[in-house]
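Posting this for the archive.
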Amino acid sequence: MARLLLPGPLSAGMFDLPRDVVRHVQALRLRAGEDLTLFDGLGGEWQGRLVSPPPAARVELLRHVAVERELPWPVHLAVAMPANERMDWLVEKATELGAAQVQPLMTVRSVLRLDGERAARRRAHWQAVAQAACEQCGRNRLPHIAMPARLDAWLAGLPVAMGDGAQAAGRCLLAAPGEGQALPFAAWAARLTSGQAVLALSGPEGGLSPDEIVWAQSAGFVAVSLGPRVLRAETAPLALLAMLGAQAPPH
């Protein structure tokens, strides 16, 4: 059954599909009378039906189902952007694994550097990638893709962005393949309460510089080992995210 994200808030009744969603319906070759799942990113999903096909596509929203498929604690994933299409892949998989936010970063060793209008275009593109991943994987809440930022500036703003004492509570983790401490994830996760944010930081190809590691640790990050192997820049943050997600209690 097709899943579509629609502008919200949604309510029961007839709904004319926006132009960009109509194009999606056309690509899926949906026909009048087919059942749909629709969501607005505000929680839960709607059971619906395609009443009329494109070009004048209308749907009927029938029943709201209060189902959530989120992690019990929002994970904010801060990643040094890998080059080329690998960032698209990272955003897609981070969405599937449950990240609540992805913060693209530029570091000393970063290959990809963005600012101004180019950064805004890439952010919009990655947000669209996250939307498509939500439609595919069953999430009803859209992760936020933040504007690209320099690591030093982003670290300086953390006390404001994470004003709930995350640093002091040990909820800021630095992915350190082959280094760092082996975190007992089950015991660590047991100390979390629902809704507490977790911040996971991962470096670029070649890793963070020694100075950047010191900056991160000074900001309250704990270096966590991801095993003895060297992981690619797009693999390490997803490995850490998967480890965190594996500790979530079943719904």
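The chain has a mean pLDDT of 88. Residues 75-246 form a domain with the Alpha/beta knot fold (CATH 3.40.1280.10).
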